[in-house]
Design goal:
Strand order of the largest sheet: 1-2-3
Shape: flat
Number of strands: 7
Helix content: 55-70%
Length: 499
């Protein structure tokens, strides 16, 4: 009830409305509770244009959110500013607050219970009421002095140091959190901090000794190996340049050096992954936290094949997730949206479900934003599941204008139980890699340039095709013609064995 009311009074009418609808369907709501819910329902409905001549009366949250996203109009659901509107909002807020007070009074809380809830509110407000960007170390110390080192306060402290990019402190506090309040959630937080530090450092690929913890024997060995290999390559470059007779050897040496640097970077993440593996019970991960974290960590090491295996371990075995897991509902929603994918079209419901899952799995201690490991993982899961049922075939490579190279690719997906070409891709959907090097300077040309393509259908009418075989071939050809898009010409040979 409070959640629905707070969403509403903060202008989040979408969540306020649908939370209210869920509550109205429950039995046993008191008279005061129903009065409050009715006021919430009416107020949100008016703001969303669902009453008094509104254009659409939605009954499903995902459908409403989907339409808003497609129109790029989520902002339209927020409250407009203006003197009259502000006054109206204030009056409506007072009415809602009065209805809530009546509902709370009806609960007949004892003084002890009220004080308990007030303390919980005060603590929650102290922890989450201020953005992490506005916190100071003194604020953190005050929280710990007043309330002690509770789990929530330790999490906030870790989040503070992550924001400050003080990863040594963040790891220290995350380790303390995981030790004092051992749980899958806190294990994820601890390994998230480790992965985030490496992820940030990997943004700058100009590796030097200063980029690594040279006190770590395993890392130091790999860095020295990389530097030795790089020196060999540099010696050949100094002697004859990049284009000499040893050009291939130079490239191989440089690739080998990069691989050693990369391996050195990934040592902490590899150890974090091993630590996660040790935490998984013999009967398997029935929480979902560990398998998802392994997928994230292998993604951070750029091992997408292994990351995919762990991701699908969750998707394919979602029924094995315990009802006690806080990720259960989020995983089920992702699986539901995944199973409804039929093509490459934009799917806001899947994106929203994945974001909710990553938010809950990470507890947002390391935020889910574009420049963090959790943001990268969020994007990876959405993209991987979206294109999971799509196959790519390179039909031709054109080197006529070398060194510029043109590759022609066909992308197939399933729609309405039929395999067909998929489209609506952007450059950001593709990664182009040649000999371990990513190529970012490329241009994507859509299939629109081939709209005038001519298609010829040739049929085998030999004796082996008599009967059902030929009839099936005819039916397939007819289906193909029916599904050809506008702007394409089809030719056929006119004889008695054709269409």
């Amino acid at each position: 009830m409070l959640g629905a009311a707070c969403d509403t009074m903060n202008g989040d009418y979408i969540n306020g409305y649908f939370k209210t609808q869920e509550l109205l369907e429950r039995k046993g709501i008191s008279k005061a509770g129903k009065t409050c819910l009715t006021k919430l329902d009416t107020y949100c409905s008016e703001k969303l244009g669902m009453t008094d001549g509104g254009t659409e009366a939605y009954t499903d949250y995902e459908a409403y959110l989907s339409d808003l996203e497609k129109q790029g109009a989520v902002e339209k659901a927020t409250y407009k500013s203006g003197s009259d509107d502000v006054q109206e909002k204030k009056t409506a807020g007072q009415e809602l607050f009065a209805a809530l007070e009546e509902y709370v009074d009806e609960r007949h809380f004892t003084r002890k219970e009220k004080r308990k809830y007030e303390k919980a509110y005060e603590l929650d407000n102290k922890i989450h009421g201020v953005a992490v960007s506005e916190l100071t170390e003194d604020d953190i110390k005050d929280l710990k002095h007043t309330y002690g080192e509770t789990e929530e306060i330790l999490r906030r402290e870790v989040s503070f140091y992550v924001y400050q990019q003080d990863y040594d402190k963040a790891k220290e506090k995350a380790s303390e959190l995981n030790r004092q309040f051992k749980s899958p959630e806190n294990t994820v937080i601890y390994t998230d901090v480790i992965a985030e530090e490496v992820y940030r450092n990997n943004m700058d690929k100009n590796y030097t000794e200063a980029s690594f913890d040279m006190k770590d024997e395993e890392i130091r060995k790999l860095v020295k190996q990389a530097e030795c290999t790089k020196e060999k390559a540099q010696k050949l470059i100094d002697e004859e340049g990049y284009e000499g007779k040893h050009a291939d050897e130079i490239n191989e040496l440089l690739e080998e050096a990069d691989e050693s640097y990369k391996e050195a970077c990934n040592v902490p993440i590899k150890r974090a992954a091993n630590y996660i593996l040790v935490q998984i019970p013999r009967h398997g991960d029935d929480t979902g936290f560990y398998e998802l974290q392994l997928s994230k960590l292998y993604l951070a090491m750029d091992d997408r094949d292994t990351a995919n295996e762990h991701l699908h371990q969750i998707i394919d075995n979602s029924a094995a997730i315990s009802d006690q897991s806080s990720l259960k509902d989020s995983i089920d929603e992702v699986v539901t949206q995944y199973n409804q994918i039929s093509n490459d079209a934009y799917n806001p419901e899947l994106n929203a479900a994945v974001t909710d899952l990553v938010d809950k799995q990470s507890a947002q201690v390391v935020p889910v934003s574009e420049d963090t490991i959790n943001g990268s993982f969020n994007s990876y899961v959405s993209t991987t599941l979206k294109y999971d049922r799509i196959s790519i075939h390179i039909s031709r490579i054109d080197t006529t204008d070398y060194p510029a190279i043109r590759a022609y690719i066909n992308i197939n997906g399933t729609k309405d139980s039929k395999e067909e070409l998929a489209d609506q891709f952007t450059k950001e959907d593709f990664s182009v890699i040649d000999t371990q090097y990513e190529i970012t300077d490329f241009t994507l040309h859509s299939g629109a340039e081939s709209e005038g393509a001519s298609i010829g259908i040739v049929m085998d009418k030999s004796g082996s095709m008599e009967g059902a075989a030929l009839e099936n071939a005819k039916q397939a050809a007819a289906e193909a013609v029916d599904h050809i898009t506008n702007g394409k010409r089809v030719s056929r040979k006119d004889d008695d064995h054709f269409l």
